[in-house]
Amino acid sequence: MSETTLRVSKIKDGTVIDHITAGHALDVIKILGITSRVNGIVTVGMNVPSKTLGLKDMVKIEGRELKSQEVDKIALLAPHASINIIRNYEVVDKQLVRLPKVIRETVKCANPVCVSNSKEPVKSTFYVDNEEPLRLRCHYCGYIMEKQDIPKQF
Ligand SMILES: [Zn+2]
Question: Which of 18, 92, 115, 119 is the most exposed place for a label (fewest CB within 10 A)?
Answer without folding.
Answer: 119
